[in-house]
Amino acid sequence: MALVTGDRILQHAKQNGYAVCAFNVENMEMVQAVIEAAEETGSPVIIQTSANTVKYAHMDYYFGMVQAALKHATIPVAVHLDHGDGTELALQAIRAGYTSVMIDASKQPFEENVAKTAAVVEVCKPIGVSIEAELGNVGGKPGDTDFGASGYTKPLEAKAFVERTGVSSLAVAIGTAHGVYKGEPNLDLNLLAELKRTVDVPLVLHGASGLSEQDVRQCIEKGISKINYATELRIMFTEAVKEYFNLEDDFVDPKKFTGYAREKVKEVAKEKMITCGSNGQAFTFH
Ligand code: G3H
Ligand code: ZN
């Protein structure tokens, strides 16, 4: 197995009662760490890059690194654009080889969100690229002052949104926020269960860094099929580099600290895959 669409993995996750981990990567070592973790645990996985990350380096670089890693892998992998802002970026992702894109117009009023999302669906669907959209307010995005305390996803709006846009999956706001939690997250699991009953596409959870294992498991039980992790991996990579500089000071080879950080990120990724129950699921993938 190798490169597949996001939707294929999400449908498999939905049918088999687990969640696929979607990890934001920033460099080659993080790509390698995630793919190795997925291989070792037998997990389908999604590698994603945010709109901010692809300002740092073109998507061709990230896709190229995943492609290289896949030469040595057997598990199903999707490559996803995270928090894209419209058709132009979606097209860049498609040209680079990504198999899934997100259009995040969740800050726009409902009708504008529908229109922007439908425009991306129109471009992606005919060529088999999956589309994730967001409805509601998952807080903590750059420039946000609201940490998700308001704007939870409304089930009937979600149903209408999915029917009108034709998206493959929907990111919902149930009390999570991006980045480091300032206090205890207050997840509305009843709302999540209601969303699962009302919407028939796989549901996505953003802002999973900092959630307890129990919270994550409950979210999966109530209907989440994809879980996004960014901050925890970034923190682990960066802290590991700092730690290495404290352990040793007489070196000139960057591979020393990037290799050390790669191992640490791999351990985090494996833990998340086990928490999400994706371990072993690659073997039932056809
Ligand atoms: O889109 C990416 C995620 O929602 C990651 O959230 O940084 O809190 O893990 P996080
Ligand atoms: Zn997100």
Topology:
Blueprint: H1 6-16, E1 20-24, H2 28-41, E2 45-50, H3 53-56, H4 59-70, E3 77-84, H5 87-96, E4 100-103, H6 110-124, E5 130-135, H7 155-165, E6 169-172, H8 189-198, E7 203-205, H9 213-222, E8 224-229, H10 231-247, H11 254-276
The protein binds glyceraldehyde-3-phosphate and zinc ion.
Residues 83, 178, 206, 228 line the site of zinc ion.
Please explain how this structure is put together:
This protein has 286 residues and is an alpha/beta fold. It has a single domain, classed as Aldolase class I (TIM Barrel), CATH 3.20.20. The protein is built from eleven helices and eight strands. The protein has helices spanning 6-16, 28-41, 53-56, 59-70, 87-96, 110-124, 155-165, 189-198, 213-222, 231-247, 254-276, and strands spanning 20-24, 45-50, 77-84, 100-103, 130-135, 169-172, 203-205, 224-229. The chain has an eight-stranded parallel β-barrel with strand order 1-2-3-4-5-6-7-8, surrounded by ten helices. Helix 5 (87-96) links the parallel strand 3 and strand 4. Helix 7 (155-165) runs parallel beside helix 8 and helix 10 runs antiparallel to helix 11. The longest helix has 23 residues, at 254-276. It is globular, with a radius of gyration of 18 Å. The chain starts with 5 loop residues before the first helix and ends in a 10-residue tail after the last helix. Residues 24, 82-83, 178-179, 206-209, 228-232 line the site of glyceraldehyde-3-phosphate.
